[in-house]
Amino acid sequence: MANQQLVQKVQQTCSDFCVALTQDEVSIFVRYTRLLELEPDAVLADIGDVGDSFYMIIGGAIKLYQIRDVEEFEVGEISAGGLVGEMSFFDHQPRTLRLKAHSKGARLLEVSRLMYNRLRIEEPYISTNLLEFVIRSLDVLVRDLSAQNTSLRARLSFLEDDSQ
């Protein structure tokens, strides 16, 4: 994919990240990344891995899985425009989920630790926008999990009341 096409794809799919950036700044950002094209159901990262990269999804989706014994079960999906791997990247802790490409595959921009550190020094405005995008992504994750937790607690309470 040519750089200009990649820039347009990022602008189309990651508008929250690009809203305060010029086309030239998005082009600069893209030069700090590596395009990854995952085959359907390919594993991007596994439970226990410590992330040295995080990924911006520009096509397809990444499914999130937990493993119980040997059984894999889906717990979520991040579609184009989202980020994956950012939590382990920034907190240096092992991943708690397996990340796999959707059944139709996925197209990602990889931001490695080396390139992120260069971006911070060489392009502080772009890296600030990227970091704010990461923070918003994590905020959505925390709020969604909180809402799911509240819903589960309400259901459990209802079931407990119903059984008495």
Characterise the protein shown here.
- The protein is α+β, with helices and mostly antiparallel strands and about 160 residues long.
- It is built from six helices and six strands; from the N terminus they run αααβββββαβαα.
- It has one domain: Jelly Rolls (Sandwich), CATH 2.60.120.
- The protein has helices at about 5-15, 15-20, 25-30, 85-90, 115-120, 125-164, and strands at about 35-40, 45, 55-70, 70-80, 85, 100-110.
- Strands 1, 2, 3, 4, 5 and 6 form a six-stranded antiparallel β-sheet that branches.
Primary descriptors:
single chain
Task: Kindly give the count of domains.
Answer: 1
- Class, according to the CATH hierarchy? Mainly Beta
What kind of assembly state do the chains in view correspond to?
A: single chain
DSSP summary: helix tally: 6
Helical residue percent band: 40-55%
- Within CATH, the superfamily carries the name Jelly Rolls
Rounded to an integer in angstroms, the radius of gyration calculated over CA atoms is 18 Å
Structural class determined from secondary elements: alpha+beta
Q: For the residues shown, what is the average pLDDT? A: 92
Which fold does the CATH topology refer to? Jelly Rolls
Tally of strands: 6
Order of helices and strands: HHHEEEEEHEHH
What portion of the residues fall into strands of 2 or more residues?
A: 25-35%
Give the termini distance in whole angstroms.
Answer: 62 Å
